[in-house]
Amino acid sequence: MLLILPSINKSMNKILLVVLLIIWTAIVFVLGGGLGVFYQTQKNAPMLEKFPVLESIVNNLSSSTMSTILVSGKVSNIYGRYVTINNKGTGLTVKIMEDAKITSLVASDVLVDGKYPILSKTATFEDIKKGDNVRINIKVLSDGKIEGDFLMIHVELPPTN
């Protein structure tokens, strides 16, 4: 009987060690997950606060005294209400507001004094296509983002003689 006890004691120690390792692993895992959640919920420091000059520029551009800024280029991508335009190798993506005014400049098919008059017509967001030349009036928001409140589609004009 005395010989059996040491072997039972050794196997109990192994089981206890395994259980403690499992508990320790679970505690570390839970703490790691908790720290990860805590880290993800922390507010990122706004970039503008890190650069006072940029903050000043954005404040000036988003003030009520600055009406709009005109950007122009060729449409390279349309995603949702976002239009990406490119001009001389530089791209800019602009969110077009739901209530933005959209027009299209088209050439009349009737010659007047040897020229085709340019007509402006109301268009919709769905009329914008990749490859269109556009001009967009943008407004800088107080958070530094930009929105387009007016978009004009320019069409290729027929040649005049």
What does this structure look like?
The structure is a single chain. This protein is α+β, with helices and mostly antiparallel strands and 161 residues long. It has a domain at 68-154: OB fold (Dihydrolipoamide Acetyltransferase, E2P). The protein has helices at 4-41, 47-50, 52-61, and strands at residues 69-79, 82-87, 90-107, 118-122, 133-140, 146-154. A 5-stranded mixed β-barrel has the order 1-2-3-6-5. The model is unreliable at 1-5 (pLDDT under 50).
Q: What would the keywords be for this entry?
A:
161 residues; alpha+beta; 35% strand
Helices and strands, with pairings:
Layout: H1 4-41, H2 47-50, H3 52-61, E1 69-79, E2 82-87, E3 90-107, E4 118-122, E5 133-140, E6 146-154
Q: How far apart lie the N and C ends?
A: 118 Å
Extract low-pLDDT stretches.
Answer: 1-5
How many strand segments? 6
Name given to the CATH architecture of the domain at 68-154: Beta Barrel
Q: State the shape.
A: elongated
Strand fraction equals 35-45%
Numbering strands along the chain, what is their spatial order in the largest sheet? 1-2-3-6-5
Mean pLDDT: 81
Main sheet overview = 5 strands, mixed, barrel
By CATH, the topology of the domain at 68-154 is: OB fold (Dihydrolipoamide Acetyltransferase, E2P)
Q: Cα-atom Rg, whole angstroms?
A: 32 Å
Structural class: alpha+beta
Q: Determine the number of helices (DSSP H or I, runs of at least 4 residues).
A: 3
Helical content band: 25-40%
The level 1 CATH classification of the domain at 68-154 is: Mainly Beta
SSE arrangement, N to C: HHHEEEEEE
